[in-house]
């Protein structure tokens, strides 16, 4: 169990922020987190980002964000782990606070994607794959997800309609989230008939990329108890990796990094999957949601899709996921996604999730994946009365 707690939460809407720079996006989330914590003294800043160098022509985000947030002189750096960058940045903050060398850390995930269009964005996202053996041949994240989904369907005798429940659930929950990119509800028949991007992956099967920023402030749990009324304790933090290229994995239908990361988190927290009240999983594609449910111990191998079919993943179900819309409806701001997951789980266990609240949620899990699961970061959060 870690000795680190969250004292402040902040986020922006996920959408096309045409008139907002990457530094402003980061600041809006940081300002909200500072106001939530009533605390402005920061020792270290960890910025989760994947694509700023390619899409915003801006590297060196640590110094940029520190300066613009009025924290010039602070220790600050960027953490990159593809779309697991946000979760990985929080992991670094947890380690820093645990070490005793950093008293209070600010973690912000930020991404500007929609200033570009066309093939530029998929090409940038494809850098999460193996450049020498996958991307060079034209592979994209959608294409890689399609390979996994087609194999999964073949192995377990499934049809496309069997996955509709994931997107239907995400949109139903996103409709209650004022910060979500898409607040429209989705019918199962619309999911099935949607335009294919890489068959069997369709427009309603993969998450839309968007601009956004989310931030948290963390400190030692002993200090946190005296600083805010209801600090959220990070009882587990684990990051693991798998082979980057799908063809190098021993088992393409098993997210080994997600399993190991979740198992280590459960061990740290002294918990089991049955103890989790709410989970935010990386549903950038519905196949990853199904595989993550299995890897995290919520479903047996080959049975993750059943939880979407029978309603178990709904807010009133056995394993509520995508409670604010997930990546599918809230939107996927790539390097910031992991911090959105943390903010959302923290709101759930703190009881401040509003219309998205899971009744009685006290223990929450957030798992952030990079690419097709080559990186997996799992955090477990709790909030005591």
From TrEMBL:
Thiolase N-terminal domain mapped to chain residues: 11-186
Ranges where the Thiolase C-terminal domain occurs: 241-382
A Pfam family it matches: Thiolase_C_1
GO terms assigned for molecular function: acyltransferase activity, transferring groups other than amino-acyl groups
UniProt cross-references to InterPro entries, sorted A to Z: Thiolase, Thiolase-like, Thiolase_C_2, Thiolase_N
Highest taxon of the lineage: Bacteria
Name recorded for this polypeptide: Acetyl-CoA acetyltransferase
Protein source organism: Candidatus Promineifilum breve
